[in-house]
Design goal:
Elements (H helix, E strand, L loop, with lengths): L2 H13 L25 H6 L20 H13 L4 E4 L2 E5 L11 H9 L10 H14 L6 E7 L5 H15 L6 H25 E2 L7 E2 L2 E8 L5 E9 L17 H9 L2 H7 L22 H11 L3 H18 L3 E2 L9 E2 L3 H12 L3 H9 E6 L2 E6 L2 H31 L8 E7 L11 H31 L13 H8 L5 H10 L6 H11 L6 E2 L8 E6 L2 E6 L3 H6 L4 H8 L4 H16 L8 H17 L2 E8 L12 H10 L2 H10 L3 E4 H13 L16 H19 L14 E3 L3 E4 L1 H85 L16 H6 L1 E2 L8 E2 L6 E3 L7 E2 L5 H9 L12 E2 L10 E4 L4 E5 L31
Helix pairs in contact: 3-23, 5-6, 6-7, 7-10, 7-14, 11-12, 11-14, 15-16, 15-22, 20-21, 25-26, 25-27
Length: about 950
Amino acid sequence: MSSADDRRNVRAGHTHGGGTVKGFVHKDRSPPPSLNDSLEGEIQAFLTDEDQLHTYDDLTKVNPVTPTTVLKCLQARYSVKVFYTHAGCTLVALNPFQPIPHLYSLDVMKEYHCAPQPQEFKPHIFIVAEEAYRNVQGQLEPVNQSLVVSGESGAGKTWTSRCLMKYYATVAASSSVVKSQHTVERIEKRVLDSNPIMEAFGNACTLRNNNSSRFGKYIQLQLDRCQLLVGASVQTYLLEKTRVGCQPANERNFHIFYQMMKGATDEQRKEWEMPRGQRFVWLPNAEKTVEEDCFHETVEAMVHLGINAERQRQIFTILAGILQLGNVNFSSSTDESQPCNLEEQSRDFLQRAAELLCVPAEELQMCLRVRTLKAGKQSVLKPCSQAECSMRRDCLAKVIYAQLFEWLVTFINNSMCADKSTWCNFIGVLDVYGFECFQINNLEQLCINYANEKLQQHFVAHYLRAQQEEYVSEGLQWSFVKYQDNQSCLDLIEGSPVSVFSLLNEESRLNRASDSKMFRVRLEKELCDNVNISWDKFSKVPHFTVAHYAGKVNYQIQGMVEKNKDPVPPELSSLLQKSGNSLLHQIFTDKETENLTSKGLSKVTVVSKFKNSLESLMKILHATTPHYTRCIKPNPDCKPLTFKKEEVIMQLEACGIVETIHISAAGFPIRIPFSSFLQRYGLIAKYSKFKSEARCVDLEADSDVLQREVEKLLRVLLQTQAVDPSHCLGKPNSWVHCGRTKVFLTQSMLDLLEDQRNKILSQCAFSIQCCWLRYQQRRRHARLKSAIVIQAAVRSWLVRREVQRWNRAATVIQDTWRRWRALLKSLAEAELDDAKDLVEEEVPELNPVIRERGSVQLSNIQEPVTVRGWPMGLALASAPSITVSLTATGFQKMMSVMASLNLPSRRGDYKVETNQYTKGLASIRAQPKGSVKLHYQRSPLLYADRQPDQKSDVTGFNEILLEKTL
């Protein structure tokens, strides 16, 4: 194929969204040329169109895969400010060396967390975090996850770990459960607040990084069954405590000391005896300011974690005492039998240190200048040399700082660690110191680089080697990809029976002064067969060189044995146990108790302790699903957006990125056992339209049966998806392969399976919802009918009861009415005149005056009719219209007012009007002869109704007693 054809193929591939470029054939070639050589053949064809190189978001799409092509793609992406790139199973992160807030905002977190397929988004650290979180949600074995963040010092591991913790503290707290919301927010806050404290006490500014982690940590984020964050714990590894008393050139001490110097108030400075302008030997480069010099942030995090003001005061007082110790110097005594002299300017510093540490100054001075030797049951005091005094001073500062750091870690764990019964899974974030190579390297660098070797070996064993060996054992046709195996380097450092560590421990346990030259000779003799170690025979300084996976490092032997012993004079521990500072007293009292419980055991050296803790970490990593993030340092000077090709390609070759891309492009990153595969995806065949293929399977059956069922399931899936062109697989075996015990899948095939499974689960959930809603509706309808029947029965009963009450009441009323009517009738009859009143009586002749006053002139009667005063009678003639005018005076007037008449005629035949006030009560009897007799009595009718009928034409009288006799 010509170069022109190659170019056309490349351009065609890029026009389809940067997919895999076809048309190239891998050829066996000599090692790739250097960066300065001209590029030829396939590499030159690939790099012709450099404008499109930044579009490769996954380096497995690069064709051909060489260090040069990978480097060019990363450089192109870095130039357009794209800092994350997929490399198969690994995420490559380039450090921009400048803040980019929008890349890690809350909206971006929610976008990746809520996306159906985060892998379809641009590469980001949140994709790795979300993949691990969804693995926990999916309960795929192993459920627990580990995120391994590796890279050189200054590559951005600490920042990446901080972003991961922030992501989980955000998405794992997004719960609608009000009951647990307070707990989740509290844990989230404490997890995030642990970072500033641990970075302040455990990080320092080095030549390679302004915020270099001088310890390793594995943060375990604990999740409950609902995948909510309920707790966290921190496991630390090998704090570089020697930095407290010895800082390399142009480097600084731990951040916390500079934070105190720059952020303390005048009152705090007075309490700590740190006046402005005072210089401390153990605080070099104090004028340099870095972003981490934020004392207020550290104090605020302490408050949120529950460290009260008194405890904070004790912590900072101890740290101030350590700084004062650094200014204490000794001078040799002329008499060797006498202790070293304390320099004049150091006396004040020693006094201040004693006051801040709350120990007697005389005892502190004695412990630093005189050591106690035990000979049997007797103790002998021996003066120390000047070098020994300085060493004891440094030892005191280191042991105080190390124990204070351990106390802080324990306090943080106690404040945010959940009870074992409340969490069931975890996601671990591993942030360890990066690979280091300085001008002078000692035991600390050896341990740090050993930890990086272990992590690299874990990656090699888990991915590069184990995957390829598994492919062969499972029957896949596979040609091995060569990779750099660092097992021989690990054997050199930690191997058995002879290794650097074993010889170092043996030398440390000997009761004699160490000799660096003798130790070097022994290393040469015992380890001469290992190709990873070498020596410069012409060097005057005893050292040895180890060929690590990331390069060769020279280790200085001088002082290595003493550091491995890490002795703490017992008189120093006893002094600190007597401290008036309650925190310092508590720390060293507990430490002494631990030493007593472990009495009789052989002394544990630094490398032994570190090796054991690292082994426990590796067991955790092997028992979890790992996710790798490789942080790359683009330039050694930490300059923003500066890309040095030589620096980057060394890191790419050292960590095996190219080999990883090769294996990822050709292999299957996901491997699921048959039983787990059928248990999770068996419902695809059960609920598909090709149900003839599906049947119940015993998951405990042998591998052959399970394999056949898996193949049937995959055929059903392919038949189901063949209808949809967007899911056409083309060559199925390029996406999935059935081995002897496992199913091997690509990420695309896994996404397809998960998508189909989610559709079936959605359909089942919809069916369940329909059945449940139908059941609820029927139940609601039955309850409604029952309620109606009950309501009708209750209403009828109430009506019947009311009617019965009404009937009883009517009967009572009727009976009462009848009795009342009969009573009224009897009373009325008693008030009526007897029959003898109906007989005509002789009307006597009246007095003329009376006759004149009591008479009335009728319009149609010729002669006046006599009206009797008592009882008053009024004769009404039967004429059509009668007008009666009655005037009464005296007693008659009073009686007329009380019982005035108002008799309107029904027919208008007659009318009676009075000139008195029409009010009162009267009984009337119409006599047979046409006369009307008016009766005035005090109580005429006690039981009569004055107005029995409002519509009656007759008012003011008892209608029952009115009779017409005309």
